[in-house]
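User: Predict structure, ligand magnesium ion.
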Amino acid sequence: MSNATRNTETVHRVSFLDKDSLSIPILKILQADGTTYEKAVLPVIDQALAEKIYDTCVFTRVLDERMLGAQRQGRISFYMTCTGEEAAVVGSVAALDDEDVILAQYREHAAIRYRGFTTEQFMNQMFSNEKDLGKGRQMPIHYGSQALNYQTISSPLATQIPQATGVGYSLKMQGKRNVAVCYFGEGAASEGDFHAGMNMAAVLNSPTIFFCRNNGYAISTPTSEQFAGNGIASRGVGYGMHTIRVDGNDMLAVLAATQQARAYALEHNAPVLIEAMTYRLGAHSSSDDPSGYRSKEEEAKWEQHDPVKRFKLWMINKGWLAENDDLAMYEKYRQEVLAAVKVAEKVSTSHVDELINDVYDEPTPRLKQQLTTLKQHIKKYPDSYPKSAGRI
Ligand SMILES: Cc1ncc(C[n+]2csc(CCOP(=O)(O)OP(=O)(O)O)c2C)c(N)n1
Ligand SMILES: [Mg+2]
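Assistant: Predicted complex:
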């Protein structure tokens, strides 16, 4: 046959497939009480790795709590939390090599932290000051770091998906033993870019891990109103991709799936799709109020599945952590974040000329014109802009 259909089975009466024709199991390793399922095959993990994972979770919880507070106080303009999804993000990044290139959506700051992004770097970005690696030109939470192989977050949904396909392909062409890793939400998977990127990756054999955080919502839209199919995993199979669905609140399941996905992607020069089933415990962003579209009972149910608590119990069972060991960690990070806020909010913004630098090799005439207009505007309304922006 000239097309690429695989099976040659024929039937002689009409018989349709439906979404339940494909049964997709969920990988679960860790139980609610911190013990593992009897027949579970554990990921590769030692005490040092477990401690790094837990430390990243604690930092992320503290950062989210404090920075949402800072947003409420008017100190930063916007914030998004990862609360409830820490196992999906940290469990996956912990399976990677530091040279694997991450292209994230926006709720994966725990991953850049895991790679070594400092508290000061977080603050410089969120306060849009001149020390920010992006020179303060992006909204808060749009982190990026060339040194950490973490491409800068971009607000338009799903743009990172075809880009990740290209990054994975280029890593292969360069002969590197590394993969691209693309994080996205189930909502972003409704964009055309998702389909283009997935299909290209499968056809062109791009070693890319597509990691979907299926957290139940795209802002206020529940998954039941987003798609009628069997989640996102069914699409991976449709594109001819190695695919797995995991309990996204189970640190060990996510770690195991991502370790094996990475090994497979490298060995076969092929993409893998991981669908992590989780729940966005917080609001979509600091601009959102979930009470308008979901019940407190639903949230309370998911609070019972706290991924950080479950992993902590496992560490206690292993004898790698004692019940109250983390109190000091939480306190240390609270102090650290608070101190970093106080420093970063006093650092001046970049010179306004930086707005158009390194966008193109040379600023285009149109950009130069827009900058001139902006400077005139700032001169006219100096009180509406930070003093440092007025250095023109
Ligand atoms: C192209 C585009 N359309 C709409 C938006 C507005 N928007 C920002 S986040 C979001 C929801 C995305 O949901 P999901 O991908 O599930 O990620 P989650 O927020 O649940 O982590 C929407 C609609 C956008 N940023 N870009
Ligand atoms: Mg979502």
